[in-house]
Amino acid sequence: MYAAETRGQGMDPKLCRRGDICHVDDWYKDLHTFTCLVRKVHPKAKIVWFGESMGSLIAMHSYGQAAPGAQKPDAMIISSPIVDVHGKLQPWKYTMIRTTSLLFPTLKVSLESLSDGQSLMVTQDDIHEDQVLKNQWYIKRHTLRLLLKLGNMSASLSRPAAAVACPVLVLHGGKDIFTSDSSAREFYAGFPKGTDKQLKIYPSSYHLLMYDHDRDKIFADISEWLKQLK
Fold it and tell me: Where are the domains of the chain?
């Protein structure tokens, strides 16, 4: 198992980039480069991308926008995809973000400031703010342009889904505050009919599935799915 240090996130070696991204294409190029490096080390292994939350957006769009000859995965696991983020924001607030980002693209805000005072439960026991106490790589504030780019990636997630030709496993928590069950099912239905695909919904789990109370069952389901890859 390998994990890349995502550009602009909490372990980016360049401190000035943390919480920001100028061009989302940099994420896609980074992932393809990372995949190429892993293939060189393990030329006979199957490469499976695992994208959780924001990582699901990066994985899906990286697959859909791969240049000819780019290193694509043999399979993908998409955990807690953020499908309908626009639906979680009041229209006036989304318009404000778009307008303000044009004037102050590097202005940083927290997700809590956009939630209308609603507690963002991400596991059975934790709200989003609690993550800062547990994860040293947690970023409390992101630039407006990063949030806007993520919103655009979320709104267009159906486009790369329609181009997927490898096996894919989608994981979703029934109490995910960012994506409803119906939106997760609609996203899943967007993969081509001939695709080897599977959807697993955990009704009592929240957004951060790998940290929540069903994680042992989820890891077991993932392991079983991986064993079936040919």
Answer: 15-227
For 84-133, give the DSSP string: -GGGGS-HHHHHHHHHHHHH-TT-EE-GGGGTTT---B-SSS-BGGGHHH
Residues 6+ apart with CB under 8 A from 23: none
Tokens 């940290």 correspond to what residue? 211
Asked if 46 and 1 count as a contact pair (C-beta separation under 8 A), the reply is no
pLDDT digits (tens, 9 = 90+) for 163-182: 999 999 999 999 998 899 99
Closest CA to 145 of 90, 99, 178: 99
Helix (H) or strand (E) holding 226: helix 215-227
Residue range 120-144: mean pLDDT, rounded: 71
Q: Hey, what's the torsion of the CAs at 209, 147, 180, 174, to 10 degrees?
A: 10
The residue among 171 and 105 whose pLDDT is bigger is 171
Which CATH superfamily, name and number, covers 15-227?
Alpha/Beta hydrolase fold, catalytic domain (3.40.50.1820)
Q: Which pLDDT score, from 0 to 100, does residue 227 have?
A: 94
* pTM metric for this prediction: 0.88
